[in-house]
C-alpha cells in the first residue's frame, strides 16, 4: 500500500497559489447586513500562466492521461511548436523532458498526469516564467475528479434544539454557536422569506441591527432545491435564526448544514474543577469553529485572516488539533506575494507576528521544507519592515500604517516599544531560518540586528523607577506612559534579566495602576507571562472569572472582548454597532494554550518535539489529567497532590516538577535539582509513576 | 452638446487594469496547430479588490443609479458597517464622501454611477488598498450596457474572391491577407469539418504543417449557429482556407467576419513610382492588420505584444493612423506591474525600447498626463535595468535573460554595445520625464548616468580603424566584431560626431563586408539612418527591391523576414517549421515611417507637434504628394522637381529644402541658410507655394 501511495498522482500547481487563490475568495465572503464587505487590503492573486516540467527515462513507451484546470498544452524536449492538448498520449521510451503549459485566468491552473510510472507529484517543477523553477505545490487532491478549485470544507446536518414563536415568526435555536447553511425542507407558497441571524437571541430578534441576514424568494428557492431541500447559498455564524416569511410561504421544517474542518481533537483535559473543564471544552469548540479554510478572527463578522489573531490560533492549535494544513495555508495566504506596499492586514505588528508564527511552526513541527518554501518571501517582508526604521533604528508606523497593539486606549505614535520587541524576535527568527538555509552571512546580519535592537530598546524604553518598558518614544523622547504590552512580550521572548522579570511581574503585570487588559487577545499573552513566572494559581482564578464570566452570561463560545462591568445586552456591542461584537472569536480560545503549555506543561525543547519539557503544575487544582499532541505522537500527564503519571509516544522528554519531600519513581532515576525541584528523563513508550508531595 | 458630454458618466476602474486584463486574455490566444500556446512570460493580472471614492457637495438630495462589474457595496462618510448594494439610491444633500468597494476575481472590477450631477468619471479616485489613491481609469465605455469586460474589436463581413476545388475539397481565397472568423452558412449533414488556414496557398494545402487550423462537428455547429450562420469561435490570420468535411456535411457558402480596429487612415502618399505607391498602401494594410487590442508582432503566429516590435509600430502609427488608444494600451500592457523578475518579453533590449517608446509618445503627442500615469512604473523598470550593470557600468544580460538585438548570427555575450546605446537613450528619456514631473534631482541623476554611459561606450567600443562601434565586450575586452546595430542606434539618437557619422555610413552601413541585415525589423532602423544621412535615393531603391521583392513573390502584406536568395516555398519557413514565418508582420510596414518622416519629411520639433520640421525630399522621384497627421491636424506636402506646396492645419512648421537656384515663394519669406539650403516658416491654415530647382 505504501508504494502505491508513493506512486499516486496528485493535482499539482504553482506553490502557494492554492492558498492565495482560496484566500482571495474567502476574503470577499464577509457581508454586513447582506451586503458585501470585502477585506480592506490588497488581495494577491494566483498566476494565470504557468508551465510544468518533468524529465523522465522510460525503458518502454507509456500511456499517460492528462487533466488540467485551465487550458493546457504538452510538448516534449522543447519542441514548443508541436504541442498536444489530447487527454491521453503515449510517451516515447528513452530520456525525455515533458513540458506542460497551463493557463487559467479564473481558477488556479493545475495539472494531473497519471500513467503507470509517470505521475504528477511534487517531483515535477513549475515556473511562473519568472526564472523560478520550483517544486510543484500539491495537497490531497489525488483523483482526476478531485479538483483543487472545487475544494470545500466538510458539512453535516444539524437540527435546531427548539423553535419558538416570536411575534408570529419562528425563532430557531440551535443550542450553541454554529456555522453553516440554513436549509428549508419542502417549501411551498410564493413570497419573500427574510432570515435574521443572531449569535445572541437579542441579535436575532433585532432585524434592523443584526449583523448577518439573508433573504430569498420562495419560488426561486424551490427551483434551486435538491430532494426537497433549499439550502441558503452563503453560510453564516449563528445560534439563533428568526425567520420572517410572507403569508402563504410555508415549509416542513428548517435545519442547517454545519460546515467545518474535520480536525482530530488530539488534546484532552480533565481536572478537579468542572468549570475549568467546561472552559477548556468551550475553548476547543471556539477554536474549531474558527479553524476553517484558514484560521479566522471570528466566524460571524470579519471571517478574514488576521496575522495577529492567527499567531495565537497557531499556538492554540499546537495544543489541540495539531492541524498543520490549516496552519500552513494561513501562513502562506497571510504573506501573499511581492511587492509589499502595505503591512499584513495593514498592521505593522501583524507583519512581525508572521515571522514569529513561522518560527513557532518550525519549533512545533520541525518542518524545514516549509521554512525553505517561504524563506524568500520572509526575506522581502523583513526588508520591507527594516526599511521603516527611524534615525534611532526603531521601527515606526508610516502615515498609511496601522500600529494596533491592542483594542485599548493607546497612543501608538512614534516608536512603540511593543513593535521593537516584536521586531527583535522576528530578526531572531530570520537568523534561525538563514542558519537553517545555510546562509551564514544573512544569519549573522539578522543576529546582529536583533542584538542591537534589543540593547537599544532596553536602554531607551526601560524605566528603572517604574520597573518596566514604557509605551512609546516620540521624536527621540520616551513618553512617561507605562503599559503592559511590551513588558509581556519581552518576558515571553526572554529579553529580561531575573531582576527585570520580577520587577515587571510586581510593578507592571500585577499592578492595578497600570491599565488593565480587556481583550482575550492580549489576556492570552498576559496570562502566559504570569504562568511563566509561576503565577498558575492566579491565572487559574483569572480563567475562572474571565472565561467563566462569559459562560455565566450564556456564552457557548468565547468572545472577541469581555468587560465584566457592562450590563446585559451592552456586551454585544462593538465598533459602533449594537451587535458588532463577535461572540465566537479565535483569540477567545486562549485557555487551550494556557492549560496545555502551563498546567499539563508540555513545550518543545527542540524543533519538532524531538526533545521536549514536561512541567506539570496543578496551579491550585486537586487533580488533573490530559494529553497534548507532539507531532505524530502525544504526551499524557495525570497528576494529583501526591502522584504524577507521565507517558509519551515519541521523542525524549524532561519531566520537571516541585516536591516538598523526596519523590519516588520506580521507573526512572529522579534527579534533585535543588530548591525542591526534581527532574526525570522520559523516554517514549514507557509509563512513569512518581510519588511526590505537592 | 459639449456640456452634456462633460457630464456623461463612464465606466471607471483601477488605472492600467483594463489594459493589463485585456493583455492577459490576448496573450493566451495564440495556438499552434489548434493547441494553446500562451506567451512564455509572466502575465500580470488586474486587482480583484478595489475601492472608489468621490467627495461631493449637493444643494439637494439626488438619486443615482449604480452598476458594477463585480460585487459592489456603497457607503457614505466612512460608515463601512452600513453599506448598500442597491442599484439605485438617493444621496443626501450637503457635503459627503461616497465610497464604493468592488470585488471581481474574474473580470476587472469596474463601476458606473449616473445621477443628475454626480457621474462616475476620472475625477473619482480608486485604490487597490496599497496606499495608492489614484484618478480612476476610463475609456469610451459611457453607457451601463457598454461594459469594459465585453470590449471587442469591430467586425465586418468579407467574401472569398474565389473557391477552387483541390483534391475534392474547397480551397477559399480571400484575395489578400486577412484576419477574422470563418463563417459557414446553412450547414447541413453530420460529421467533422477540418479547416486548414494558409497565409500562402502552399500552407493551406499542407494539412500536416500549416500553422493554424480549426475543426468542428457539424451537429454541434448547427446548435451554435445564429440566423443560419455558424461562426468559428476563434479568429485566424489567413488568405486561404482549405476545408475538409466528412461526406454528407454540406453548406451553402463560406464567408468570414473581418475583425479590425476602425482606425482612420490619416496619412497618404502618392508619387511618380506606382510600385512605391503600392508598397506604401500595402504597408498601411500590414500595420492595420497588426493594430488590434494592442500592436501585435504578427497576426498569424505569435499574436503577442512584443516591446521591440511595438517600438516600430508606434512610430509607423504616428505617420499613418495616429491611433493613440492602441498606443497607450500597448505601452501600459507591456510594462505590466511590479515586481519585475524578468525583462519585458524576457528580452533586455525590449525593456529599453519601452522607455524610448514612451519618450516618442510624448514627443509625438505632448500628452504629459500619460507620462505622469506611467512614471512610477518607469522608475522601477529603470532600477531593475540599472541593477544589472557590470563592474564597468555596462548593462549585461543575466543568464536568464534574452539579449536579442536581431534575428541574425550574433553572439550577444558580455556587454553588447547596442544595449548600452539603448540604455543611454532610455536614461535620457527618464531624465526628460523626471524633469516634466518636477523631480529635478532624479532628472540630474538620470542625465549624469546617460552622459557617463555614452562617454564610456564611445571610449571602449569605438574602433577608429574600422570606423564604428564594435559589437560586444566580454570580461573587459572589446571583441573585434563589427555589426551595424549599435552604429545605427548611435546615429539615430545623435550620439556621433560629424566625422563619426560619415565614417559609420561609409565604413559600416554601406560596407558590403559588414554582415547584411535581413529582417525588416532592423532594416527599419538601417534605412532610417541612411535617410538621416541624405541617402534617400539609395533607400528608395532599397525599398523597391526589398519590399518590392516581397510583392513580386505575391505578398499581400509584408513579412517577418525576407531573404531574396531563397527559392520558392523556402520563403515561408522559419523557426524550424516549413510555414513558421509570419507573412503579415508589423515590423514589415516600415516604409510608412520612412516615407512620412524622410520623403514627405515631417518630424515634431517640440512635444505634440507644437512646432515641427518639414524637410521634403524626392529621393529620386519625379513628384510626390502626401499627408502626415500631426496630432489633431495634418501637414500636406506636394513636390516635384520645380515646385513645392505645403499646407498645415496646426502649430508652426519650419520648411527646409534644397534648391540649386534661388527659390521663390509668394506666400512667405525664404531664408537662405547656405549650401543651397533654404527655409520657410510655415503657419497653420496657409498654403505655401514655392518654385525651386531640384
TrEMBL record, chains A, B:
SUPFAM superfamilies per the UniProt record, alphabetical: Six-hairpin glycosidases (SSF48208)
Pfam families (alphabetical): Bac_rhamnosid-like_N, Bac_rhamnosid6H
Alpha-L-rhamnosidase six-hairpin glycosidase domain: residues covered: 267-595
Domain Alpha-rhamnosidase-like N-terminal: 51-243
Protein's UniProt name: Alpha-rhamnosidase
Annotated coiled-coil segments of the chain: none
Cross-referenced Gene3D superfamilies: 1.50.10.10, Galactose-binding domain-like (2.60.120.260), Maltose phosphorylase, domain 3 (2.60.420.10)
InterPro entries in UniProt: 6-hairpin_glycosidase_sf, 6hp_glycosidase-like_sf, Bac_rhamnosid6H, Rhamnosid-like_N_bacteroidetes
Amino acid at each position: 500500500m505504501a508504494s502505491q501511495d508513493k506512486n499516486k498522482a496528485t493535482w499539482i500547481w504553482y506553490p502557494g497559489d492554492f492558498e492565495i487563490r482560496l484566500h482571495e475568495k474567502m476574503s470577499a465572503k464577509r457581508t454586513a447586513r447582506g451586503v458585501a464587505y470585502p477585506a480592506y487590503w490588497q488581495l494577491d492573486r494566483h498566476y494565470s500562466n504557468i508551465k510544468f516540467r518533468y524529465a523522465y527515462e522510460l525503458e518502454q513507451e507509456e500511456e499517460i492521461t492528462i487533466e488540467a484546470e485551465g487550458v493546457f498544452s504538452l510538448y516534449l524536449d522543447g519542441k514548443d511548436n508541436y504541442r498536444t492538448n489530447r487527454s491521453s498520449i503515449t510517451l516515447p521510451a528513452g530520456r525525455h523532458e515533458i513540458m506542460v503549459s497551463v493557463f487559467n485566468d479564473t481558477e488556479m491552473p493545475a495539472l494531473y498526469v497519471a500513467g503507470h510510472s509517470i505521475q504528477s507529484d511534487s517531483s515535477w517543477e513549475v515556473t511562473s516564467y519568472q526564472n523560478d523553477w520550483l517544486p510543484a505545490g500539491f495537497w490531497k487532491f489525488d483523483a482526476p475528479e478531485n479538483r483543487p478549485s472545487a475544494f470545500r470544507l466538510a458539512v453535516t446536518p444539524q437540527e435546531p434544539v427548539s423553535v419558538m414563536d416570536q411575534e408570529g415568526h419562528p425563532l430557531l435555536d440551535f443550542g450553541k454557536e454554529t456555522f453553516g447553511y440554513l436549509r428549508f425542507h419542502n417549501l411551498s407558497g410564493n413570497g419573500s422569506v427574510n432570515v435574521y441571524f443572531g449569535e445572541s437571541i437579542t441579535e436575532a430578534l433585532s432585524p434592523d441591527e443584526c449583523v448577518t441576514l439573508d433573504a430569498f424568494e420562495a419560488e426561486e428557492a424551490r427551483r434551486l432545491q435538491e430532494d426537497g431541500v433549499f439550502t441558503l447559498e452563503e453560510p453564516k455564524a449563528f445560534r439563533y435564526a428568526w425567520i420572517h416569511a410572507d403569508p402563504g410561504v410555508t415549509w416542513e421544517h428548517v435545519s442547517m448544514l454545519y460546515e467545518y474542518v474535520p480536525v482530530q481533537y488530539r488534546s484532552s483535559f480533565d481536572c478537579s474543577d468542572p468549570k475549568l473543564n467546561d472552559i477548556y471544552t468551550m475553548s476547543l469548540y471556539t477554536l474549531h469553529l474558527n479553524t476553517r479554510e484558514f484560521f479566522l478572527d471570528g466566524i460571524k463578522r470579519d471571517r478574514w485572516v488576521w496575522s495577529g489573531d492567527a499567531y495565537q490560533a497557531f499556538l492554540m492549535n499546537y495544543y489541540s488539533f495539531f492541524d498543520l494544513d490549516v496552519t500552513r495555508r494561513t501562513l502562506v495566504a497571510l504573506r501573499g506575494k511581492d511587492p509589499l506596499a502595505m503591512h499584513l492586514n495593514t498592521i505593522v505588528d501583524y507583519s512581525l507576528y508572521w515571522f514569529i508564527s513561522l518560527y513557532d511552526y518550525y519549533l512545533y513541527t520541525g518542518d524545514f521544507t516549509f521554512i525553505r518554501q517561504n524563506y524568500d518571501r520572509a526575506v522581502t517582508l523583513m526588508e520591507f519592515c527594516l526599511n521603516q526604521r527611524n534615525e534611532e533604528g526603531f521601527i515606526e508606523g508610516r502615515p498609511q500604517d496601522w500600529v494596533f497593539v491592542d483594542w485599548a486606549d493607546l497612543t501608538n505614535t512614534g516608536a512603540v516599544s511593543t513593535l521593537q520587541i516584536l521586531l527583535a524576535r522576528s530578526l531572531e527568527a530570520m537568523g534561525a531560518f538563514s542558519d537553517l538555509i545555510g546562509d551564514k552571512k544573512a544569519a549573522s546580519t539578522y543576529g546582529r540586528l536583533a542584538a542591537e535592537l534589543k540593547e537599544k530598546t532596553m536602554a531607551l524604553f526601560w524605566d528603572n523607577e517604574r520597573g518596566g518598558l514604557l509605551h512609546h518614544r516620540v521624536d527621540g523622547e520616551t513618553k512617561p506612559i507605562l503599559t503592559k504590552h511590551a513588558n509581556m512580550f519581552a518576558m515571553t521572548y526572554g529579553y529580561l534579566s531575573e531582576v527585570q522579570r520580577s520587577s515587571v511581574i510586581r510593578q507592571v503585570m500585577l499592578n492595578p495602576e497600570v491599565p488593565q487588559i480587556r481583550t482575550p487577545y492580549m489576556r492570552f499573552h498576559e496570562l502566559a507571562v504570569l504562568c511563566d513566572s509561576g503565577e498558575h494559581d492566579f491565572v487559574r482564578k483569572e480563567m475562572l472569572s474571565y472565561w467563566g464570566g462569559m459562560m455565566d452570561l450564556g456564552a457557548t463560545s468565547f468572545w472577541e472582548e469581555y468587560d465584566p462591568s457592562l450590563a446585559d445586552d451592552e456586551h454585544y456591542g462593538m465598533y459602533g454597532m449594537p451587535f458588532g461584537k463577535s461572540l465566537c472569536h479565535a483569540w477567545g480560545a486562549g485557555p487551550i494554550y494556557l492549560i496545555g503549555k502551563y498546567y499539563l506543561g508540555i513545550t518543545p525543547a527542540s524543533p519538532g518535539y524531538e526533545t521536549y519539557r514536561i512541567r506539570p503544575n496543578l496551579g491550585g487544582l486537586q487533580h488533573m489529567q490530559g494529553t497534548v499532541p507532539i507531532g505524530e505522537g502525544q504526551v499524557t500527564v495525570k497528576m494529583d497532590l501526591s502522584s504524577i503519571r507521565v507517558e509519551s509516544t515519541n521523542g525524549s522528554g524532561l519531566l520537571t516538577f516541585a516536591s516538598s519531600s523526596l519523590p519516588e519513581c520506580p521507573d526512572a532515576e529522579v534527579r534533585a535539582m535543588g530548591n525542591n525541584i526534581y527532574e526525570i528523563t522520559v523516554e517514549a513508550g514507557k509509563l512513569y509513576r512518581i510519588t511526590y508531595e505537592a
